[in-house]
């Protein structure tokens, strides 16, 4: 980062500090005030936007970088030639811009271009352009979170579908619903710094669906981190999208990607592929991530399968096995919270250790230094469940909601607290809230080490079977499960 760049950032920070003296925090300043109107599209405008985007296939994807000072970029192109370049500036006219170069690699029949931008300062609005050889795109903007607070919006099961037997023009329709949902979420939570998507982004795992997933215009401004769901495993295209930091390559890592981690301020996000049942892989990944981030105060897991669900609790036969695989890891390494999807029903557990409730959160909205791990399940964007399913009687569940609407969650980390607020999408009604205060540092132990080894053997068998199925499918041999 050059000196002028640092000086402008310092000026921005000084203005933020001045505003905070008058009681205006930087997160209260809307960084996207000028572009919100470009996010909103009626059906006709969307049809034009989406068909144009499908012709140019020119959609840039922003993913949180390795830490809050980085931002990862990726986009696809038909040609490999030309070094992928991103220009970053604190000015809308891109003056004083700094250049970052990346690399291109094969992505199916196209090429994936990936660039990592480093040296970002907190509480700033940055402008960027990108391209091959020359960053000749139109300037767009993103913001960075405050040094002592940030907010992530967590949702799941977006289910973009390119299946005309399901619905005519389903690709455009499901992408438009996602576009509108994102606009609503980010407009109702202007402090949001990034989005978390807990799997099943693409119903058929197709490139066209992943393109639809990244097509909403708000994603030119707000980064998104996703994990692999069972639907991503129906094809091989998920891995060609996004620029995930700190990817772990294990013995059973899928062809489409695996576990990865990033940090934001004092929070370590551990994103895991629950379709890979090798707990040996996941254990090593978690150990490596924690070793690289010994000072992280919070540990947040994200994986697709709901180990503990709400209304549709543990309905899949593999959930019990996944509990056996993952629980020793979450318990031994003191995860604060684990975010999931898959059931499409909202749920939040009590404090769990292994398979036992260690702290009852019935009617509780404020806790300090809790024992155990909280597990959450989000709902779906395009496949909202109806409200006819009976209430869960599972003893692990503290809160479940059966509402004929999407429920998503904001997670705000500030000082010693994590504030969890869950809202309905349509009305922005607060349906669940919990604030966790934490003064303890996380502990690592090997209390369940023997169980981890046992689960490791089970999981390796499970994942090898999965890997063979994946290989057969890749060879064109259809396996139906
Ligand atoms: Fe799903
Ligand atoms: Fe799923």
Features:
481 residues; alpha+beta; Immunoglobulin-like; Purple Acid Phosphatase, chain A, domain 2; 2 domains; seven-stranded mixed beta sheet; 24 strands; globular; disordered N terminus; binds fe (ii) ion
Q: Report strand %.
A: 25-35%
Instruction: Label the overall shape.
Output: globular
Bound molecules: fe (ii) ion
Largest sheet: 7 strands, mixed
Structure write-up:
- This protein is α+β, with helices and mostly antiparallel strands.
- 25% of the residues lie in helices and 26% in strands.
- It has helices spanning 3-21, 36-39, 43-56, 170-188, 207-214, 279-292, 317-332, 449-474, and strands at residues 61-64, 71-77, 84-89, 98-101, 103-107, 110-117, 125-132, 140-143, 149-155, 194-197, 224-226, 260-264, 267-271, 298-302, 337-340, 346-349, 351-353, 356-359, 366-368, 374-377, 397-401, 407-414, 417-424, 430-437.
- The strands form five sheets. The chain has a seven-stranded mixed β-sheet, with no helix packed on it.
- Strand 23 and strand 24 form a beta hairpin.
- The model is unreliable at 1-27 (pLDDT under 50).
- It binds fe (ii) ion (2 copies).
- One fe (ii) ion binds next to loops.
């Amino acid at each position: 980062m050059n000196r002028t760049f640092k000086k402008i950032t310092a000026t921005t920070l000084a203005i933020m500090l001045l505003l905070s003296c008058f009681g205006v925090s930087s997160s209260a300043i809307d960084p996207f005030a000028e572009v919100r109107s470009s996010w909103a599209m009626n059906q006709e405008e969307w049809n034009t936007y989406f068909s144009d985007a499908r012709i140019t296939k020119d959609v840039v994807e922003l993913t949180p970088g390795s830490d809050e000072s980085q931002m990862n970029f990726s986009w696809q192109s038909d040609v490999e030639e030309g070094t992928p370049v991103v220009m970053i500036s604190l000015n809308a006219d891109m003056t004083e811009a700094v250049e970052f170069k990346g690399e291109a690699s094969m992505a199916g029949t196209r090429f994936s271009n990936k660039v990592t931008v480093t040296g970002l300062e907190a509480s700033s609005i940055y402008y960027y352009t990108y391209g091959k050889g020359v960053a000749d795109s139109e300037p767009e903007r993103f913001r960075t979170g405050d040094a002592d607070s940030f907010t992530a919006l967590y949702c799941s099961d977006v289910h973009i579908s390119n299946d005309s037997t399901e619905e005519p023009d389903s690709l455009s329709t499901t992408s438009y619903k996602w576009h509108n949902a994102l606009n609503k979420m980010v407009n109702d939570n202007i402090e949001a710094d990034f989005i978390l998507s807990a799997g099943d982004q693409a119903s058929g795992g197709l490139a066209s669906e992943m393109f639809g997933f990244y097509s909403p215009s708000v994603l030119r401004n707000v980064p998104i981190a996703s994990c692999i769901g069972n639907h991503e495993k129906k094809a091989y295209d998920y891995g060609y999208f996004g620029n995930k930091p700190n990817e772990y390559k294990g013995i059973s890592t899928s062809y489409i990607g695996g576990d990865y981690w990033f940090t934001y301020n004092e929070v370590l996000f551990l994103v895991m592929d629950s379709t890979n049942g090798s707990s040996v892989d996941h254990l090593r990944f978690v150990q490596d991530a924690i070793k690289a981030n010994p000072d992280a105060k919070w540990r947040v897991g994200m994986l697709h399968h709901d180990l503990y669900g709400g209304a549709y609790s543990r309905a899949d036969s593999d959930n019990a096995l996944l509990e056996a695989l993952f629980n020793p890891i979450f318990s031994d390494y003191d995860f604060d919270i684990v975010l999931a999807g898959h059931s499409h029903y909202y749920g939040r557990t009590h404090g769990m250790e292994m398979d036992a409730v260690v702290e009852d959160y019935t009617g509780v909205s404020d806790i300090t230094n809790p024992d155990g791990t909280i597990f959450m399940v989000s709902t779906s964007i395009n496949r909202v469940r109806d409200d006819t399913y009976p209430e869960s009687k599972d003893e692990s569940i503290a809160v479940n909601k059966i509402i004929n609407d999407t429920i998503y969650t904001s997670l705000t980390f500030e000082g010693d607290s994590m504030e969890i607020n869950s809202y309905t999408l349509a009305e922005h009604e607060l349906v669940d809230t919990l604030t966790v205060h934490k003064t303890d540092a996380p502990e690592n132990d090997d209390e369940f080490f023997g169980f981890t080894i046992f689960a490791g053997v089970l999981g390796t068998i499970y994942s090898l079977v999965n890997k063979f199925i994946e290989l057969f499918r890749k060879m064109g041999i259809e396996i139906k499960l």
